[in-house]
Write a structure and sequence with these properties.
alpha/beta, 4-stranded parallel beta sheet, globular
């Protein structure tokens, strides 16, 4: 369900409307809520999360103004297929072998991030040509490790995220808002901006970078830079199962070949 797992901090100085909008924005951008889907009614959110209907309406209004949703009078609020949500929705991996995959992604910056992360975490070879095989649509969400870093920071603190991808920054900023509360500030940094890199190294209590950027960031900065994974654990589970399947199929084919060979040999040796 779209609202499962949404926790709101009523003691935070961050308005509840911003917290709710942040949760929904993160799920829309990450592909958990697909374009065209109708968001739960204001009354339904009011009942499940204990929010005033004006708060829910305001949060939905924030999503509409951000270009992530569209309101239809009398019908409700629907996720809009904006550029960012389309990019998240069409990020998919086709398994072509036990170590070979084909990645499809419309956003060039995001594609480089996903390629680097897949190579690093699964040790796969990525190809650009189409392939026939099982496909996994990637869901995107900042890793549990990133959330753990945010929660462990002293208050107040700043977390700096280094990436060329706008979508990575939007996902990370939503996660910082939701899990860091009003005590953790978010500082987006482009890796080519040396001045901002130096500023981030002085001000940030934690510095992270996506997998495509982290090697360069570690070379440019003396500070420790942690890798930021953005492919969800759910997607890795599905991918890992499919990558193991060709190996099992290969073993089964080898076993079948050996059985057939033994059968043939015994038939030949019989008088």
């Amino acid at each position: 369900m779209m609202l499962d797992g949404i926790l709101l901090d009523r003691q935070s100085r961050i308005p509840l409307r911003r917290q709710l909008a942040g949760h929904l924005e993160s799920r829309i951008l990450g592909g958990q809520i697909q374009p065209g889907r109708r968001l739960p009614s204001v009354r339904r959110v009011e009942e499940l999360l204990g929010l005033h209907r004006n708060t829910v309406s305001a949060a939905y209004g924030d999503l509409v103004r951000a270009g992530l949703a569209r309101s239809h009078a009398g019908s409700g609020v629907f996720v809009k297929p904006s550029a960012s949500s389309r990019e998240a929705a069409v990020a998919r991996v086709t398994v072509a072998g036990s170590r070979d995959v084909v990645l499809e992604c419309a956003d060039g910056d995001l594609r480089r991030v996903l390629e680097a992360e897949l190579r690093s975490r699964l040790a796969v070879r990525i190809h650009s040509t189409k392939a026939d095989g099982p496909t996994v649509s990637l869901r995107l969400a900042p890793s549990v490790g990133f959330l753990r870093v945010i929660r462990s920071l002293p208050r107040p603190s700043i977390v700096a995220v280094i990436s060329d991808s706008e979508l990575v920054h939007r996902l990370a900023s939503c996660a910082t808002l939701i899990h860091g509360g009003d005590g953790v500030g978010y500082l987006p940094v482009l890796p080519a901006n040396r001045r901002n890199l130096d500023r981030a190294s002085r001000l940030a209590a934690a510095m992270v970078a996506d997998y495509a950027t982290v090697p360069r960031a570690r070379e440019d900065l003396a500070a420790k830079v942690l890798p930021l994974a953005v492919i969800s654990g759910h997607s890795y589970t599905g991918l890992s199962q499919l990558l193991r399947r060709p190996k099992r199929d290969g073993r089964q084919q080898l076993a079948a070949a050996r059985t057939a060979e033994r059968s043939l040999r015994s038939s030949v040796e019989e008088p």
